Amino acid sequence: MTQARSAEPLAVAGGAAAPSLAAVRPASLIGQIAWATCDGARSPYNVLVNIFVFGAYFSTVVIPDPVRGQTVWSFVSSAAALLVAVGAPVLGAVADAGGRRKPWLFGCLVLGAPSMAALWFATPHMSSGLIWIMLALVGGTLCFEYSNVFCSAMLPNVAPPGRIGFLSGLGFSLGNFFGIILFLFYLYAWGRNAHPLFGLDVAAHEPERAVGIIAAIWLVLFYIPMFVLTPDSPGTARSVPQAVRDGLASLIHTLSRLRSYRNTTVYLVARLLFNEGFVVMMLFTSVVAAGVLHWTPPMLVAMGLLNSVVATLAGLFAGWLDHRVGTKAATMIFVAGCLLANIVVCSLTPDTVFFVRLQGAAAAHGSGLFPDLPDKVFLVTQNLMAFFVTGGLATSRTLMAKLSPRDMLNEFFGLYAVSGNATSFVGPLAIGIVTAAFASQRAGVAVGIVFLLAGLLLMVPVSEEGPSPLGEGRG
Q1: What are the residues whose beta carbons fall under 8 Å from the beta carbon of 369, sequence distance 6 or more?
Q2: Taking the model in full, what pTM does it have?
Q3: Which of 125, 219, 425, 434 has the maximum number of C-beta atoms within 10 A of its C-beta?
Q4: Is residue 287 one of the residues assigned to a domain?
Q5: Counting Cβ atoms within 10 Å, is residue 74 exposed (0-12), middle (13-18) or buried (19+)?
Q6: Mind listing the pLDDT tens digit of every residue in the chain (475 residues)?
Q7: For residue 256, is it within any domain?
């Protein structure tokens, strides 16, 4: 049944282009693997730069005032999110008009790799040149997000119908597996090495500055096989200016026809909401652990490593669950799991678990890296959060591939990117407002519950069937 459902959006596409698009043969097995490694190669930037290593360094050492550092970091993230919101659907429409995706992925690589490598120049207590580091961060994020649009839009042509869910999950799993490799490398090279590799000065924070270079090298290393081994979508005879004009006209036409794709539109709104909950939990994991439970850097690094292991398994599990229960049901399971985990996180303090104050032996301080009961509960819950978020990202992308008209893949994946990024500043902003109003980090993190619950409820009426030949969403 899952295979049949996966085949449907590939078999029916609106417009005269449908026959030619349906005739595109899937990539070979090695081409599919090359696509998955390319998709996964983007993740180390997010893990090393945005979540665990460089972000903390930037907001506490490059800018030594943590309050100002967090403010600047949020402004940079918001600027990048707005550029993605504006640019992703436009670039997607232009790429659709031109047919090919690889040139745009190459453009992402040309923008992203130098931007990532330039983070090396973010020295402690910078007094000048900070704007260039901020621009480099924006460039790296644009590469990460724009490449996701074009890489995801290749998926229905790369994979045969019955393997779309599996290949999508494999891409996420490889991304997290790469994170495991690079976390272990970081610990071996600089974290627990009396003689740091490459002569980097740990006291001068050179390892933190080097993670951008590592992400850039990883990106180039795993993009090359995709360019060589994975076939691109067929090109058209349009010139670049004509593709731009036609693409923008097509985008305007797409937006005007969104009412005709009611089912897909409802899904995009639902995904916008629950993805905001995902973003909140990913961005504020370290903040909550350090601020509420007073975790140390070794505890955070260990959590990051475990997160990568769990998320790798989640990507593979997502493909299996998709096959067993369908893409919509799998997505809702992951969103519901993340919602429950968010509630548990809000229940924790150094002496409280599940909103109950610890007494007696449960309140005693233990030993080890995660000594106390709240530490252990947070560690388990946060790893479950990583599992649910990764699984939800994988299945939600698969569902988008099923619901998108075949001849408008890049446009709809551009809108998909917007649904994940256009409002990405809203979650952090809401957390800041609620935290200040209630003087409580736990109250602030509870904002994620609202987004996740709203997205979950809006998923209920969504039909997993793709658009009909007339362009009307079924259901």
Answers
A1: 298, 299, 302
A2: 0.69
A3: 219
A4: yes
A5: middle
A6: 333 322 222 222 222 233 333 445 677 888 888 988 988 898 889 888 887 778 777 877 888 776 677 667 777 877 887 787 777 767 766 666 666 788 888 989 999 999 999 999 999 988 788 999 999 999 998 888 888 878 877 877 787 777 777 887 788 778 878 888 888 888 888 877 778 888 888 888 898 899 999 999 999 999 998 888 888 766 666 666 776 676 667 667 766 766 777 888 888 889 888 988 888 777 777 767 766 777 766 677 778 888 878 877 887 788 889 888 888 999 999 999 999 999 999 898 888 888 888 876 666 677 777 888 889 999 999 899 989 998 998 888 888 878 877 766 666 776 676 666 656 667 777 776 777 677 676 777 788 899 999 999 999 988 877 554 444 444 3
A7: yes
Burial of 105 (0-12, 13-18, 19+ CB in 10 A): buried
Range of the domain at 405: 2-12+25-459
Q: Tokens 């996964």, residue?
A: 40
What's the domain count of the chain?
1
Assess contact for 459 and 356: CB atoms under 8 A. no
Q: Which residue in 198, 261, 194, 245 sits closest to 468, CA to CA?
A: 261
User: Residue 369 — φ and ψ, nearest 5°?
Assistant: -65, -35
The Cα-based distances of 389 to 220, 231, 383 in angstroms read 26, 30, 10
Tell me whether residue 358 is in a domain.
yes
Would you give the DSSP letter of residue 42? T
Q: Is the dihedral of CA 442, 280, 296, 181 positive or negative?
A: positive
The C-alpha angle 111, 251, 34, rounded to 5 degrees, equals 45
Written as six digits, the tokens of 225 are 């096989």
**Residue 352 phi, psi (nearest 5):** -135, 135
Domain CATH for 354: 1.20.1250.20
d(CA 420, CA 438): 28
| 148, 57 Cβ separation under 8 angstroms | no
192 burial class (0-12, 13-18, 19+ CB within 10 angstroms)? exposed
Do 68 and 139 contact (CB within 8 A), yes or no? no
